[in-house]
Amino acid sequence: MRSLRIAVLDEELPYPLNSGKRIRTFNLLARLAERHRITILCHRNAEPGEAETALKVLQNLGIDAIVVPRAVPKKEGAGFYARLAGNLLSSLPFSVATHTSPELVEAVREFAAQNPVDVWHCEWTPYAQVLRRALGKRLRRAPWVVMAHNVESLIWKRYTETEENSVKRWYTRRQWAKFEKFERWAFAHAFWTVAVSEDDAALIRDTLDGTEQTEVVDNGVDTKFFRPQRDVDRDPHRMVFLGSLDWRPNQDGARLLLDSIFPAVKAAEPRASLAIVGRNPPDWLKEHAARTPGVRVFGTVPDVRPFLATCGMTVVPLRIGGGSRLKILESLATGTPVVSTRVGAEGLRLEAGTHLSVTPDETGLADAILETMANPDDALDRADEAQRYILREYDWAPLAEKLEEVWRVAVEMRVTRPTMLG
User: Fold this and answer.
1) What is the DSSP string of 149-172?
2) Fewest beta carbons within 10 Å, which of 161, 190, 277, 418?
3) Mean pLDDT score across all residues of the chain
4) Upper half-sphere CA count for residue 30 (Cβ side, 13 Å)
């Protein structure tokens, strides 16, 4: 089978591996680069120094990169709020408008003019707009794939449902409507859409005008890297929260932990402690944790495995989100018990009560955490059962092969599929 020429459009270079999106992108592309010519076209990483290291790592894997000298603006300061206000005049969602930079559009246009491409791969749904702008009418004939890490309209729906401030709720409702419109276009016109769970795939097919050309490539875990450490003692009263702390659903979950869940646990079990681990924690989170006895925020760490090896459980208090949580797979791959809300655990083919503890919503989490602390052996038995299941079902290698098949079928559809832009 011939090697394919794949052009990947993305936010930034997927390294270091300190967010769920980067972990997924890196692990899939690293394996497929062994058989295909992959070029990433993206913005410059926001953190200084990341791009140089990332370029070396990707080059060692045989992945080329074209990085435009513009980082996606940070979501802070007066400029951020000015862009939010300006987006009221745009038909595009804020994330799509922000990520569709003229610099990246021009880089994609030049690359298309100078290089043959078998498949254009949008590694996040908003980058379908970059491709649309760059290729114009040629997009009708160019095989292209959308990687839906989340169904973004579902996330904005949940933002709206949980937002208490009436002005913010009005704004999020508008973003929800814009994302529904944009996703309908992207999913209906892409040659293939890749979802990360069966739940997301069903939503794309049934309510967002996606065609039957929707395939599921689950999130996975590096089962050689994340393994149980049997020679380390666990503290059954120590909780860990993992996740990128610059992502709003994780911020919402961390706030719930600090405001209500952890104080209730601490009141019933004085030995309880909480470690919050993830990149770019906002100042309010660090200040809130500093005022809460038993809580520490660690921010970006080089390796999360020491935290997983010594804690009694990973807690996933999400009420906003989509896709599926790599943090749950990584935790269970190390034999670490997991306590999660239904939203936190959705999208994973895991069984509540057999593999992890799941509550309908965040209101039952404190009781579930206390039960886990009181019965650590039962929790470890569930985690061991889950670890064996993950070894069979969630390794990255077969998942990469599923994405490769999507690329090959997209190439075959070049002539047979009539695609018209809306």
Assistant:
1) SS-HHHHHHHHHHH--SHHHHHHH
2) 418
3) 94
4) 18
pLDDT at 210 > cutoff 80:
no
Residue 221's SS3 state is strand
- Asked, for residue 233, whether it belongs to a domain, the answer is no
Q: Is residue 226 part of a domain?
A: no
Q: What is the per-residue pLDDT across 260-311, written as a single tens digit (0 to 9) for each?
A: 999 999 999 999 999 999 999 999 999 999 999 999 999 989 999 999 999 9
pLDDT digits (tens, 9 = 90+) for 349-403: 999 999 999 999 999 999 999 999 999 999 999 999 999 999 999 999 999 999 9
Closest CA to 251 of 294, 289, 219: 289
3-state DSSP percent of the chain in helix, strand and coil, to 5: 50, 15, 35
Over its C-alpha atoms, the chain yields an Rg (Å, rounded) of 21
Q: Which DSSP symbol is given to 362?
A: G
Let me know if residue 286 belongs to a domain: yes
Q: Which two tokens stand for residue 8?
A: 């990947």
Domain that holds residue 131: 5-220+396-416
Which amino acid does the sequence have at 14? P
Residues in the chain: 422
Q: Looking at residue 416, what is its pLDDT?
A: 67
Residue 4, token pair as written in the block: 């394919």
Does residue 57 come out as left (phi exceeding 0), alpha (psi in the -120 to 50 range) or beta? alpha
Q: Check which CATH number belongs to the domain holding 318 and give it.
A: 3.40.50.2000
Question: If DSSP codes are grouped into helix, strand and coil, which group holds residue 227?
Answer: coil
Total domains in the fold of the chain: 2
pTM for this structure? 0.91
List alpha helices for 226-364, DSSP H. 248-256, 262-268, 283-290, 305-310, 326-333, 342-345
